[in-house]
Amino acid sequence: MSNTGYITEDTIVALATSSGTNGAIAVIRVSGQHAIKITNEIFKGKNLLQQASHTIHFGTIRDGEEIIDEVLVSLFVAPNSYTRENSVEISTHNSKYIIERVVSLLIKKGARAARPGEFTLRAFLNGGMDLSQAEAVADLIASNSAASHQVAMQQMRGGFSNQLKSLREDLIHFASLIELELDFSEEDVEFANRDQLKNLINKIQVIVQKLIQSFEQGNVLKNGVPVVIAGKPNVGKSTLLNAFLNEERAIVSDIAGTTRDTIEDEINIHGVTFRFIDTAGIRETADVIEAKGVERTREKMKQARLIIYLFDPTQDKVEEVQAQLPEIERLQIPFVTIINKSDLLSEAQKAVYNVLNPLYISAKEQIGVEELKDELINRVRLGNLNTDDVMVTNIRHVEALQKTADSLERVIYGIDNPVTSDFLAMDIRQALYHLGEITGSVSTDDLLDNIFSKFCIGK
Q1: Is 259 annotated as a binding residue?
Q2: pTM score, two decimals?
């Protein structure tokens, strides 16, 4: 029994592939001390107990003499598996009936149904990965862009963990010297050089702050860039959203005020996910429902990382545009000024609007949309982002890093305003504790249950 309440001596089983899909193949995963033995009892083919690890075998799954399916069985002998336990993956035909029969047979022979995330939990408990790497597995599954995939892969392969491990090892060295001083407190000796300790703490602080600051970009890569499409009614906001998505996602009408609530959808631009939010047109209105939509628009603009503000040259003069811009500027959020319906403008008419330094597009005719996508990448400053850099994408990690930084500040204060070794040791222990929370060097049952319960069943 592990300290999480999970019985790791059990053999567990679950469908590892998505259920309800139209694919031809399903994969049923089995893991535990008796995984190969249990599978062998329902498999007709080679004796799986006599086969080498990392081999695949063709045969049939049978309930007595009844053939349930022809399958391929992949063997992974401990410790050379994802969970570091004996593991089997059974590839069956993707029939709900077949899957249920095979899983039921495995449970009948001694396995039990896996809990959410239990395979990855076992990989963590058995030393196959640390906690931050385990969380990166969930991020990898959820990744929907090249950038989010690369960041998750980098974390899963230990980039973040290795940097934290190096910080902890340096800090543990000095912590042990401080602890030694406590044993010789009556002799009033110092084993830990305070200048060297301060230099180390300063070095760690720089790295920790860099990691904390990376969360803003890391979170964007993980969850997408929130972009609000705003402007007065009937300037083409919904048409632009449809142009981005290449589908009629939003209702388009010549009637002002058609969009009364926010409409959201995602697209991938150059490997980065953007979450576009089409909003109600901003204007004074007596319509109660439309007024609520306008208020939601203003709230969404405050939460955005980037604002696309559209103007219609057939209804907005330059002076009117300039009068609207201060409201956006006060938000202190990057925005792109867009003149829509530019296909209706002559070059002379465009010259009048050049004072706004806008981009000219025609959402309806798909003119300038690709150029706008390039500009969005430039404005969120992700174009030169090196996703090989260690980057924080998890709010839990940021909170632990911030607590680490606070503890390190107290260590510096203790060095500059000499305190006894026991107080210094206490603050260093706290810093080590918070760093350990990230990788799982220190953990609680509630923390692990909370993390792994968010995984899919077969992972």
Answers
A1: yes
A2: 0.64
